[in-house]
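Regression test case RT-17, inverse folding.

Input:
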C-alpha cells in the first residue's frame, strides 16, 4: 500500500509538472502542447486551437498573411510587431500592454508581451507570443485571472516552452536577407575605376620616361 501510494504521488507530481498538456501539431512546421480537450477550428485562411488548462485558457491562431510587400529587413519585422500591438490596443482601448520584448523561438524572432484589462469583474491578463513568417502569422495566447497569477505562471511557462518550430524556419522565413558580400556593387565599380586609372597612369609614365642610349 505504501509503494502504491508513492507511485501515485510521483505520477500526480509528474502530471502537475506537465499540466496535463500534450503535443499538438499546428501545421507541418509548428507544434505546441495543449490540454487534451483541445478544440480545433479550420476556416479559410485561419486555423484556431483552444483549450482550458488548470489555471488558465490557451489559444493558438494561425492566419495567412495578405499578399503584400514583403518585409525587407529586421526593422521591417519590428514594424510588423508594433503594428500588431497598436491594432490590438485600438480594439481594446482600456487594455494596457506590459513588458513588450523580443524573444527567440527556435531560429525565429518573436514578440512577447502581456495585454492586461479590467473586465469589471477583475483584472485579466493575456500573455501573448507573436511569431511572424512571410506566409503566416502564429499567435500563442495564455489567458488567466490576475489573482491566480502565481498559480498560472507555471502552466504558462509549460505552454510557451512547448512551442516547437522546424529548423527550416529561420530569419530568412521572416524577412528578405541580402547576403552581405565582401564588396557591394558600388564598391566594386569604384575599385575597378581606380585600378583602371592606375594602369593608365603607369602606361603614361612609362611612355614619358626618357630613353638613354
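Golden output:
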Amino acid at each position: 500500500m505504501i509503494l502504491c501510494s508513492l507511485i501515485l504521488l510521483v505520477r500526480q507530481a509528474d502530471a502537475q509538472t506537465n499540466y496535463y498538456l500534450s503535443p499538438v501539431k499546428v501545421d507541418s512546421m509548428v507544434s505546441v502542447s495543449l490540454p487534451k480537450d483541445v478544440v480545433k477550428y479550420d476556416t479559410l485562411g485561419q486555423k484556431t486551437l483552444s483549450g482550458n488548462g488548470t489555471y488558465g485558457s490557451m489559444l493558438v491562431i494561425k492566419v495567412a498573411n495578405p499578399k503584400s510587400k514583403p518585409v525587407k529587413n529586421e526593422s521591417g519585422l519590428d514594424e510588423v510587431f508594433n503594428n500588431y500591438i497598436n491594432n490590438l490596443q485600438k480594439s481594446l482601448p482600456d487594455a494596457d500592454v506590459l513588458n513588450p520584448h523580443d524573444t527567440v523561438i527556435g531560429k525565429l524572432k518573436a514578440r512577447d508581451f502581456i495585454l492586461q484589462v479590467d473586465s469589471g469583474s477583475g483584472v485579466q491578463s493575456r500573455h501573448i507570443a507573436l511569431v511572424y513568417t512571410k506566409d503566416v502569422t502564429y499567435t500563442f495566447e495564455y489567458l488567466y485571472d490576475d489573482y491566480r497569477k502565481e498559480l498560472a505562471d507555471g502552466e504558462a511557462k509549460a505552454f510557451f516552452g512547448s512551442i516547437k518550430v522546424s529548423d527550416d524556419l529561420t530569419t530568412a522565413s521572416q524577412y528578405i536577407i541580402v547576403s552581405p558580400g565582401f564588396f557591394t556593387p558600388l564598391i566594386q565599380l569604384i575599385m575597378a575605376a581606380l585600378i583602371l586609372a592606375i594602369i593608365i597612369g603607369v602606361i603614361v609614365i612609362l611612355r614619358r620616361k626618357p630613353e638613354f642610349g
